[in-house]
């Protein structure tokens, strides 16, 4: 209305994967049947021990609920 032309439309910003990291939910993460990554092979002994303990606790919880 003042005689000015509207600014030209700008293209959408370029996709940046660092702003949108991959989803870590079970639906989008790789399943248990896939080969482990190199990072998994380099895990510390403490991390392996914690994972083993978590798996055991989860197994015991399933058994307590009646799911084997």
From TrEMBL:
Residues 1-44 are annotated as: Disordered. Residues 8-24 have a biased composition (Pro residues). This is Uncharacterized protein.
């Amino acid at each position: 209305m003042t005689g000015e032309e509207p600014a030209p439309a700008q293209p959408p910003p370029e996709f940046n994967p660092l702003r949108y990291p991959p989803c870590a939910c079970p639906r989008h993460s790789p399943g248990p049947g896939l080969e482990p990554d190199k990072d998994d092979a380099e895990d510390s002994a403490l991390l392996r021990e914690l994972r083993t303990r978590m798996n055991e606790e989860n197994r015991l919880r399933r058994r307590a609920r009646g799911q084997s």
